[in-house]
Amino acid sequence: MRIERTIVIGSLTLGMLLSACAGSPVAANSTNGSPAGPGSGSVIPPATSSTEAPVTSEKPVPTEDSPPGDIPDSIAFVPYRSRAGGFSITTPEGWSRTTSKDSVTFTDKLNAVHVSWSPGPSAPTVKNATADEVPALQQTVRAFSLVSVKTATLPAGPAVLISYQANSEPNRVTGKQYRQDVLRYELFHQGMQIDITLLSPVGADNVDPWRIVTESFAWA
Length: 220
What we know:
Blueprint: E1 77-82, E2 87-92, E3 96-100, E4 103-108, E5 111-119, H1 126-140, E6 145-154, E7 157-167, E8 179-189, E9 192-201, H2 207-216, E10 218-219
Antiparallel strand pairs: 1-2, 2-10, 3-4, 4-5, 5-9, 6-7, 7-8, 8-9
């Protein structure tokens, strides 16, 4: 089971996405992507982010009563195809996009869709995820709190779903953090593992958009 390498990256505002791999080239934003101001929260996927300070001692930040994270029901979805990853996926139109050699991230406000890929020896399992990945997340994710590890079935095939909560990276201007719900789907196909990580602030109602995103995923 693949564990993503911990990388050192700063906080993220929309329009200032950093590459998911240190030193990797960053592609241009997607069509219609618009930058947000410095008040935007950080939505770097916790599973791939770290800071110089230890994250194991950080306390969960309070959840917002009305977090600015609901994805509008009227939003359109557009397809994205990755030749490097060998997949296609549909994401909300107008979100900023950042790519590296082994990942792509779509963000808007406090929401993010992060897809990463790498060769793997075998399909992920609940047992391996619980024994290997959860302890790694506990060491690399801010105020990590496990919700569940279970199997899931997507149109693209079986998956392992790790659900947890985490603090966002501090806003680099205000220092503000948000408590986030994180869904990490792990799939496997012909020697390639794909991880789809969905982030939104706790309290946001994004069940339907996340269903559209995950069910749209297909191996190319």
